[in-house]
Amino acid sequence: MSILNLKKKFEELKEKFLVNKYEEVIKECEDILKENKIDVFYNLLCLAYNNKGETYKAIDVMNEALKHNPKNVDFLNNLGMFYSNIYEYKKAEKKYKIGLEIDKNNLSLLNNLANLKKDLDQTEESVNIYEKILSIKPDALVVMYNLAGLYNSLGKFEKSKELYFQILKQKKDFTEADRLISQMEKYNSKHKHFLNIKEKLSNMKLNDNSLLHLHFALGKAYGDQKNYVESFNNYKKANDISKKISNYNFSKSKKRFDTIKEKFKSLNDCKLNKIDRKVIFIVGMPRSGTSLTEQILASHKNVIGGGELPYIQKIYNDYFKSNQNIEKNDLLKCNKEYLNFLTNIDDSSKVFTDKAPLNFFYIGFILKFLPNSKFINIVRNPIDNCWSIYKNYFPTKIDFGNDLSDLSKYYRSYKDLMFFWKRLFPNEIYDLRYENLINNTKEEVEKLLKFCSLEWDENCLEHHKNKRVIKTISFNQARRPIYSTSLKSYAGYENYLLDLMDLN
Question: Which CATH number fits domain 256-503: 3.40.50.300, 3.30.450.20, 3.40.109.10, 3.30.300.30?
Answer without folding.
Answer: 3.40.50.300
